[in-house]
UniProtKB/TrEMBL annotation:
The protein, known as: triose-phosphate isomerase
Any one of the GO CC terms: cytosol
Gene3D superfamilies on file: Aldolase class I (3.20.20.70)
Keyword rRNA-binding (UniProt): no
UniProt EC number: 5.3.1.1
Pathway assigned to this chain's UniProt record: Carbohydrate degradation; glycolysis; D-glyceraldehyde 3-phosphate from glycerone phosphate: step 1/1
Keywords: Cytoplasm, Gluconeogenesis, Glycolysis, Isomerase
CDD domains listed in its UniProt record: TIM
The gene coding this protein: tpiA_13
Length: 251
């Protein structure tokens, strides 16, 4: 099974109307002839309209970094899945470690968002990963397995047909301390094998991204590993040259 590589930029809480325009115009130009891999940028909510108007008709898709699990109602400050669809989003990041740690998101709330995203026709990019302490205690498989099971046990493995998984060890996110390709591959293989216990076809087809200090210098080696299908990229997605180089490494 050949899986098409995917690179997703996570802008986090960065950007402005002026800087987004420059960034996106350079990304569009840099990726115009890229046909062998997919790319997505996930922008803050207020810029989705701008991102839509600049990226529509290009080979770069866009999405959001979170969403509410219900579609409308008295939920001050929340943004619904259907609102993201209104702005042309195709993807949404679910369960990022910053949401889990800074905003108290749990396996349960992440699972509810995952399902609501799919109900709205969005592709959830579901994040999993262990902390440094958990890795040191040899708990990586337990933590990542638990996070993965929070989806598979509730909804069945088939839901992964319309989803992307991302392994993002917390110690590597925003740290300049990326996992080595071997470390990342080990966990990606663990994830794929765990899915295969339930459904071998789904396991073979699902794209599993690696995230955590991906740069142009390490992308090609990471993406060469058999179970790494691309990257979820934070800081380097804010520099057009770096993001383009990472997408090219996936191409
Ligand atoms: C992320 O935001 O998901 C991420 C991986 O960040 P960085 O690439 O900056 O480590």
């Amino acid at each position: 099974m050949t899986r098409r590589k995917l690179v997703v930029g996570n802008w986090k809480m960065h950007g402005s109307i002026a800087s987004n325009k420059i960034l996106l115009e350079s990304i569009i130009a840099g990726l115009r002839d890229l046909h062998g891999a997919d790319s997505v940028v996930c922008a803050p909510y207020p810029y989705l309209c701008q991102v839509q108007s600049l990226l529509a008709g290009t080979n770069v898709a866009w999405g959001a970094q979170n969403m509410c699990s219900t579609n409308d109602g008295a939920m001050t400050g929340a943004v619904s899945p259907t609102m993201l669809v209104d702005y042309g989003c195709t993807h949404v990041i679910i369960g990022h470690s910053e949401r889990r740690n800074l905003f108290h998101e749990t396996d349960d709330t992440a699972a509810a968002r995952f399902s609501a995203a799919q109900d709205a026709g969005l592709i959830p990019i579901f994040c999993m990963g262990e902390s440094a302490e958990e890795r040191e205690s040899d708990w990586t498989d337990y933590i990542v397995g638990r996070q993965l099971d929070s989806i598979i046990r509730r909804f069945g493995p088939h839901v992964l047909r319309n989803a992307v998984l991302a392994y993002e060890p917390l110690w590597a996110v925003g740290s300049d301390n990326p996992a080595t390709p071997q470390q990342a591959q080990e966990v990606h293989e663990f994830i794929r094998k765990r899915i295969a216990r339930c459904d071998a076809q789904v396991a073979a087809a699902v794209r599993i991204l690696y995230g955590g200090s991906v740069t142009p210098a390490n992308a090609a080696q990471l993406f060469a590993m058999p179970d790494i299908d691309g990257g979820l990229v934070g800081r380097a997605s804010l520099q057009a040259d770096d993001f383009v180089a990472i997408c090219r490494a996936a191409n």
